[in-house]
Amino acid sequence: MRRTVIVSNRVASITEGSSKGGAGGLAVAILETLRESKGLWFGWSGNVREAPLDTPKHSAPTQANPFETVTVDLTPAEHSGYYNGYANRILWPVLHYRSDLMEYHSEHFRTYQRVNANFVSQLVPLLKEDDLIWLHDYHLMMAPRDLRQAGVKNRIGFFLHTPFPSADVFATLPNHRELVSSLCHCDLIGFQSPTDLRSFEDYITHEAGGQVHANEEFEAFGRQFRAQVFPISIDPDGFASAAEESERSDVANRLRESLDGRSLMVGVDRLDYSKGLPERFLSFEHLLDRYPENRQRVTFLQIAPYSRIDVPEYKLIRSRLEGLSGRINGRFAEVDWTPLRYINRGLARRTLAGVLRHSRVALVTPLRDGMNLVAKEYVAAQDPEDPGVLVLSRFAGAAHELKEALIVNPLDYENTGEAVQRALSMSLEERKERWSALMDTIRQQDITAWRRSFIAALEAT
Ligand code: ADQ
Predict the structure, then answer these.
(1) 218: helix, coil or strand?
(2) Structural domain of residue 352, as residue ranges?
(3) Are 163 and 295 within one domain?
(4) In whole numbers, what is the pLDDT of the chain averaged over residues?
(5) How far is CA 333 from CA 258, 296, 344, in A?
(6) Cα 373 to ligand 1 centroid, rounded to whole Å
(7) Out of 17, 174, 262, 378, which could bridge 27 as a Cys pair, Cβ 3.0 to 4.6 Å?
């Protein structure tokens, strides 16, 4: 088996990803790929230093983790230009159809290019002839070109975890051509959903003057490559057992007691403007307004840990949510009932699994999302004898697969409120039918299938 070299913005600490159910799905997938191929994981250490070390930091393989990690530090200027500036304030909004939020400065693009080039120059001496190189996500879009310029002939694959927006939206990025022409140096580009692939095809034919042939073969900027859909997933059975075990935990008991027989609705997201949280809060307000029988009977728990706190747009969305949650609770709360519990902290994965299992309805209503793993985790966490209902945005990549969820347009908050009402009153029989169809889908395309199919497709290019 060939060695796989994974390159991502961050290298997670091994302990974060060491146990099933204890780690995020992506970390598990990456670690399994690395273990199987005795691979190498390269990326940022997470440290920001005025004077970074000259050489990257290696960690040697161990018996439990038979792969290497190599990490580099960023300077404060690199962190602010490449990570906060270009990746999070320019690329992220555009990839999520929010060009209006882009804060463009050409200096940020130069820093982004410099950091990509620096990653590549530190990586190249570590490469072996038949390594497969697998680049992850929007932080590293200039790396394919740099790798080829450094003479690297290995197979290179790139997977985009976010959406690829429609060609017109992508073209609002002043550097759209540089970014896509760099990606075209890959042998394989992977997207989350057919919508993303279609948008990319459209970009290639209409913006780049390239061609799309049969078998997902592309030609553009003088290069030939493939682009395909690989919907990312989770380990459903691992997550299901974590949820089942967590049901007997202290936190689960506390949650059950505090609900006092009320139905629980849940939302779990990083606090990000792409996740549709204000619209979700409004849909809950609509539910209580329009269907007063839910007052005192339903509690909505929204878990939304802060993310990207240095980015101003995230401060704005935070204060908007604080305002809305205050208004909803002020309007509807009783001395013995708080309708909305809004928590800005992350939960341990096992605890999270238990909370999802205990929830009658999950609201996964992003305005745009590459996939959204919480949707799949919610399904996996359910009790097969009494499963809850998933209310899912049509704009999450997951909606392409999870067709038996109640699919909504999150911008229509009233309609989302109606879907929740339908979910709360759905018969056990219908809940079971929908759940088992959803669970079958997730089992068929789980995280192992995802990583193996990407690697197989890369080898086959
Ligand atoms: P994210 O935008 O971070 O990921 P998501 O797919 O939902 O979104 O993954 C988040 C992960 O973090 C999930 O496993 C979830 O359980 C966990 N998580 C979220 N909030 C948590 C909390 N409060 N406590 C504990 N755990 C929490 C990006 C893209 C997505 C894409 C993924 C994977 O934006 O579209 O699905 O990468 O490709």
Answers:
(1) strand
(2) 236-444
(3) no
(4) 95
(5) 15, 8, 20
(6) 6
(7) 17
